[in-house]
Amino acid sequence: MPIALFWFLAAVSVISALGVVLQRNPIHCLLALIVTLLAIAVMFIGEDAVVVGFLQAIVYGGAIMVLFLFVIWLLNLGVEVGPSGHLALKLFGTIAVAAMTAELMAFVLPPHLQVKFAGHAAGYGSIDSLSQTLFSEYLVAFEVTSVLLLVAVVGAVALARRSSAAEIEQHAADTARKAQRVS
Amino acid sequence: MVTLPYLMALSAAIFAIGVLGFLTRRNILVMFMSVELMLNAVNLAFIALGSRLGTMDGQVIVFFVMTVAAAEAAVGLAIIISIFRGRETVHADDLTMLRW
């Protein structure tokens, strides 16, 4: 990855990550998050992780973020008004994060991370080499992942549905009562 | 060529922003997005280290992290919807059911 491209992507990703934290409209936060994810995806491709970069853009920036978007729309969230959260929490949170950043930078910045790097072998990061590793060394983890996804799907359905017919009737009655009170 | 410390510093910065968002925002959905930011910062560190060490392990682990993130988003958003259905709020301070 050329150094100019790195600085450009770094600026885009940090600014949009700040946008996620600082904006008050959840939809704007989500859009900023998508920009961050796409900048990181381009960075993956620049680091020769081509397949994972595309997966990041498609699965993360596409599918997962659409899920978030639908939930925001479903809950009909608007702009937050008024003061949000506690001032003390913000103050101490910011101090703690500054300390953590200093610590992380002290860990990553000194030259001991300067490994010798002589360019990649042909085919590094291709779908061929990725699947060779995935289906040999990490085969057990891959199979366990399928169980994880199954559990997550069943759990999401179980959480999101109304559990019984009685509960559905109760909810319908509640909504009717609310509507009556409004009118 | 970008050297490793730059990439790791960027990863640390994005992670720190994610932690900041998680600590200071009270909207559950935005807190959730901050968690996604942190996951992505770690993904970037994995890709950078794997690339410099010349192994595919980092990329495979990022693949797994994406899977876990998808599962987490599905279950987490289902929980948020079911909380919202009962309490009509996504503000973390309003959810004190477990407070002793």
Kindly describe this structure.
The complex is a heterodimer of chains A (183) and B (100). Chain A is an all-alpha fold and 183 residues long. Among the domains of chain A are: 1-79, NADH-ubiquinone/plastoquinone oxidoreductase chain 6, subunit NuoJ (Four Helix Bundle (Hemerythrin (Met), subunit A), Up-down Bundle); 138-183, no CATH class. Chain A contains seven helices and no strands. Chain A starts with a helix and ends with a helix. With 100 residues, chain B is an all-alpha fold. Chain B has one domain (4-91): Helix Hairpins. Chain B contains three helices and no strands. In chain B, helix 1 runs antiparallel to helix 2 and helix 2 runs antiparallel to helix 3 (57-87). In chain B, 50% of the residues are buried. The model of chain B has no long low-confidence stretch (mean pLDDT 89). Classes of the chains: A mainly alpha (183), B mainly alpha (100).
Q: How far do the termini of chain A sit from each other? A: 63 Å
Largest sheet of chain A: none
Helix content bin of chain A? over 70%
Q: What class do helices, strands and sheet pairing of chain A give? A: mainly alpha
Computed Rg of chain B: 17 Å
Tell me the domain tally of chain B. 1
Spell out the helices and strands of chain A N to C.
HHHHHHH
- Which quaternary structure do these chains form? heterodimer
State the name of the first-level CATH class of chain B.
Answer: Mainly Alpha
Mean pLDDT of chain A: 87
Write down the secondary-structure element order of chain B. HHH
